[in-house]
Amino acid sequence: MGGRETDVVLLDENGIRSDGRKVNETRKVTIKVGVLKNADGSAYIEFGGNKILAGVFGPRDVHPKHMSNPDTGILRVRYHMEPFSVSERKNPAPSRREIEISKVLKEALEPAVILEKFPRTAIDVYLEVLQADGGTRCAALDAASVALADAGIPMRDMVCSCAAGKAADALILDVNNEEDQAGQADMPIGYMPNLGKITLLQLDGVLTTDEFKKCIELGLEGCKQVYEIQKNALREKYFSSGDNN
């Protein structure tokens, strides 16, 4: 989180944010399924200014074999930001932040995927951030869930994700890049609505106990909205277009 000093008015006197949204409004979310021919499952998401591509491969043999688990499959997640995804060119080598987010996303997806059906195999999820605009881990998690479903991987539920936070002393839904940099708190949440389980919860910033509870409630409402968009994207591929694959 950045400091509070900023030239951007994060919230005006009418409670409207810098990008024209109300405090409880998400950015526009668009998801397209089955965009990569060579992947077993894939999805492309635009979440505000974020543009992220997800590709799923597997279940497939693990190499080297000693890395495999005889009792269950393993999930491997690689989150990567393209050098051109941010305004100041990023080094193409994996950063500590990308390695950390890869681990976080893996742990957020593992409760959803029924890995015990695929012992000694691996399911690989590749996430390429083409354009970043705050909240990339949430958008990447949303795309990864849809790509796993597209690959036909058995899942207990899809994970939907959205962040809540605090800026200009107000609790807000779906923190954008400006609010992330100059706001007071950012809380990414991952959620499985059918099971009522949170699989991702992080907090960067400071909230009171009451704000923390309200922030979770607000974030879960955003997650549920994204969940409907995820389901509709899958329906559009599998039910609306007949034999379109």
From TrEMBL:
Gene: rrp41
Nuclease found in the keyword field: yes
The family this protein is said to belong to: Belongs to the RNase PH family. Rrp41 subfamily.
Cellular component terms (Gene Ontology): cytoplasmic exosome (RNase complex)
Taxonomic path: Archaea, Nitrososphaerota, Marine Group I
Protein name stated in the entry: Exosome complex component Rrp41
Broad class of the protein's primary localization: cytoplasm
Record's subunit section: Component of the archaeal exosome complex. Forms a hexameric ring-like arrangement composed of 3 Rrp41-Rrp42 heterodimers. The hexameric ring associates with a trimer of Rrp4 and/or Csl4 subunits.
Species of provenance: Marine Group I thaumarchaeote
Enzyme Commission number: 3.1.13.-
